[in-house]
Design a protein that fits this description.
By secondary structure, this protein is mostly helical. The protein has a domain of 106 residues. It is built from five helices and two strands; from the N terminus they run ααββααα. A two-stranded antiparallel ribbon has the order 1-2. The chain starts with 8 loop residues before the first helix and ends in a 38-residue tail after the last helix.
Length: 154
């Protein structure tokens, strides 16, 4: 087993002679690309599940369910109704991916759920736009608009 090293060491260990800043950016780009590939794989797996169910309608090359089926899937996803007949595996796949996304989000920032997910029925909605402020420098430490109270219009 290799000796343990502090987490910060991963930022500075690079190719011998490489600029530490370039090494950090290269590693960041690699991690970002890996995440993008994982997301793409998730989407393609979902596409295959829908295709196997006979969903042939497509938008921008991706299968699209009917509004009625979409409502049934969302209702079942949130435990408010049964899964549509024959779509149990699609629902299971969605729940697995939702749980993984939540776990990844909380691993990255454990306090995020306290700030952004105050209720069990959270869904992104229209945010109240920030008040117009006169030009000039923004205040340091001001609350980003997406952390502010949501609009009731949605």
């Amino acid at each position: 087993m290799p000796p343990s090293r502090p987490p910060a060491a991963d930022l500075i260990l690079g190719i011998p002679g490489e600029n530490p800043g370039e090494a950090a950016l290269r590693k960041y780009a690699g991690a970002r690309n890996k995440s993008g590939l994982e997301t793409r794989r998730w989407v393609e797996e979902g596409d295959q599940l829908l295709k196997a169910k006979g969903i042939t309608a497509r938008v921008a090359g991706r299968p699209v369910v009917s509004p009625k089926l979409g409502d049934q899937l969302l209702t079942a996803l949130h435990g408010e109704g049964p899964a549509p007949a024959g779509f149990e595996d699609v629902l299971r796949d969605l729940k697995t991916k939702m749980a993984q996304e939540t776990a990844d989000m909380l691993a990255a920032d454990p306090s995020f759920s306290k700030r952004m997910l105050p209720g069990p029925d959270y869904f992104p909605r229209m945010w109240k736009l920030p008040k117009k402020t006169p030009g000039g420098r923004p205040q340091v430490g001001s609350k980003p608009f997406f952390f502010k109270q949501r609009s009731d219009l949605s």
